Amino acid sequence: MTAGRIGTIATEMAQDVFCLEIPTPFNVGAVNVYLVKGEKLTLVDVGPLTAAAWEALTTGLASIGYKVEDIEQVVLTHHHVDHCGLLEKVRQASGATTLAHPLAAPYVEQDEDFIAFHDQFFTELYKKAGVPEEKLIIIQKFHQLMKTFSEPSRIDGLLRHEQIVPHLSEWKVLYTPGHSQSHLSLYREKDRVMLGGDHIIKHISSNAFIEPPRDRSGARPLTLVQYRTALQMCADQEIDLVLSGHGEPVTNHRELVLSRLQKNWERTDTLRRMLADGEKSAYELTAMLFPTLYEKELPLTLSETLGHIDLLTILHQVEVREQNGMLYYHL
User: Fold this and answer.
1) Which of 141, 168, 172, 317 would be 312's cystine partner, CB 3.0–4.6 Å?
2) Best CATH choice for the domain 11-323 from the list 2.60.260.20, 3.40.50.2300, 2.60.40.10, 3.60.15.10
């Protein structure tokens, strides 16, 4: 893949699967979107809503003889704006239908009732975690991110675990939650290729972002537990090549999964050492775990901390105490 002033040149990564490297304004860097030839010409993810991303998409498609107007359907691996932001622009240009997991819909549609619930959920979560009042502005920053790098769109068809992707008869859906509740991957058995989105990435471990529960009366999902379980599910699959949402392809997915799982336990050990001298809130632990990063990337770092606290809690390796609406953890 090459990117420069001339834009993106699409690269064939597997039979009838072409990668387009799309620039993003985010720390994660470029996002990989994939053009898949099947009964319908399908784009897997689209990139963020920026002029540079649109130019890279159009140039990349042109490099293999296609236009945006030729896209017949879009499959979203998940709802994060670096993967879905251009969706409405692609739909308007092409008339393509959109397929995604049901839990992507309220984010993609920017459903106002859901967004209000989302805000309430995070306000309560952050207060329990001990986040100072003045830092709760990060909830509004999430809205700004969505409004800047995506626009309201819609999902036409819903995808479930192990179903065949409509109009891509060789591809099967694998529901792989953890990084997001809406995350899915696509698997082609004949050559053991997986389009893995942000589930399995070679150079970085995916953050298991805390998200609201699907049932508004229920407890929040244990996203790191989900992520680890979905990783183990993939480790049991016969996969020769993972084409990821960021970075290079993965050819040793089992070794990579094992390494990721091991790193989780190393982090839980670190947390237990931090609690050896007394109880602490999740926010205090986050500041200790990520001293140079936590203020700039609080949703990411707090998700990491809470995820590892969840692991320790379900194994009864830490205890929790509530006082004045805040949770404190101790050995």
Assistant:
1) 317
2) 3.60.15.10
